[in-house]
Amino acid sequence: RRTPRDDDTHNFLATTSRLLCNLYALIPRGTYMMSTMIPPEGAVHVIDQFDSAKCAPGNIIAGELLSCGQGATPYATVQGKTKLTKDKPEGQNKYYFEVVFDGLVGGFGVSFLNQNQNKVNIYNQDSYLMSGYGDLYYNGASKKIAPNVSRKMTKLACLLDMDNGQLQFWHDDVDFGIALTESRLCDGEYYITYTFGKGASGATFKLASS
Questions:
Q1: What is the pLDDT of residues 84-97, one digit of tens each?
Q2: Are 135 and 144 in contact (CB under 8 A)?
Q3: What is the residue-wise DSSP string for the chain?
Q4: Distance from the first to the final alpha carbon of the chain
Q5: What is the dihedral of CA 13, 14, 18, 19, to 10 degrees?
Q6: Residues 43-58 as b or e (16 or more Cβ within 10 Å = b)
Q7: Between these two residues, 205 and 28, which has the higher pLDDT value?
Q8: pLDDT tens digits, residue range 3-31?
């Protein structure tokens, strides 16, 4: 036998369900909603911008969206505008940043200032980039740190800890742990870096909004 409380509960659930359905209908199809993941303790959440002055030819910047155009040099990099340095008191030099990748074979991480836009930064000693296949490329070498993370609308995140010289990556909020510890990561000036691999025409990176 139903009671007034049962009716109130039923009405509440029905109203909530309709509200959620209406909210879902407002989300444009083919988009990925950035999560509200809280940056690691003590880290600055960096909201980056693509830098057209450090954009490899063939790549296209349109606001918060970076696209791989036809004829783009594979693995040539695009850097952001935000300079990451160890210029604060100890314990305050941690930088967290995230991006949504859509397509095949991208690389994401940090690198030193790239003076040559056609330079293959993913394989040289000036960059630390996780590829879409889950490999970390650094110091001319590579190692597996994650499963294949290159697919439609996937969120990638990175933490550069310049106090302890460490890099850490996430994929759709799954933490892969410390990927690398290296004293070189404590020094110099780094920039958030993006790259497209072979056959990546049409792939995109989308920045988080402030």
A1: 999 999 999 999 99
A2: yes
A3: ---HHHHHHHHHHHHHHHHHHHHHHTSPTT--PPP-PPPPTT-EE----EEEEEE-TTEEEETTEEEE-TTPPTT-EEEEEEEE---SSTT--EEEEEEEEESS-EEEEEEE--S-TTS-GGGSTTEEEEETTSEEEETTEEEE-SS---STTEEEEEEEETTTTEEEEEETTEEEEEEEE-GGGGSS-EEEEEEE-TT-TT-EEEEPP-
A4: 52
A5: -40
A6: bbebebebbeebbbeb
A7: 205
A8: 555 555 555 555 544 544 443 333 333 34
Cα separation values, 6 from 2, 14, 15, Å: 6, 12, 14
Residues present in the chain in total: 210
One-letter amino acid of 14: A
Kindly list the distances between the CA atom of residue 40 and the CA atoms of 93, 187, 202, in Å, as whole numbers in the listed order: 12, 21, 32
Cα–Cα distance, 173 to 155 (Å, whole number): 8
| Tokens 């790259």 found at | 195
Report d(CA 135, CA 133) in Å as an integer: 6
